[in-house]
Amino acid sequence: MKTVEIYTTPTCGYCQAAKRLLSQKGVSYAEVDVAADPDRRAEMVQRAKGGRTVPQIFIGDTHVGGCDDLYALDRAGKLDALLAA
Q1: Distance CA 27, CA 38 (A)
Q2: What is the reported pTM?
Q3: Which domains does the chain have, with CATH numbers?
Q4: What pLDDT was estimated at residue 85?
Q5: What whole-number distance in Å separates Cα of residue 66 and Cα of residue 83?
């Protein structure tokens, strides 16, 4: 299974929803709290090609996007394949 990284802030409901979906699928992930570390926020924006909102989700080298994008992949039946590839 690919490494999953999710950039979050503690009070973000969309971050909680994204983490909940990943947990329901049994996926472990590395969480980066960008509120606590401004350098990591800059890293997130660079990796996300300018994306400034949280969550920003990466599966392996693939930038998934945010929570809505993650759920859309799941509804389309593509999330499991992306995680397993």
Answers
A1: 26
A2: 0.95
A3: 4-84 (3.40.30.10)
A4: 75
A5: 16
